[in-house]
Amino acid sequence: MAAIVRIIEPDISDEENERNLQEVIEVLERIADSISISKSTKDE
Hints:
mainly alpha
């Protein structure tokens, strides 16, 4: 969650913003993967 807070700080560079955004995307993808895994195991 710290990465999300950093993204909205206006005084950081575009490169750092991009890295932070990439970090958030990776976290969201991991969450989405674990949700789909738990859904598929629940269906079995």
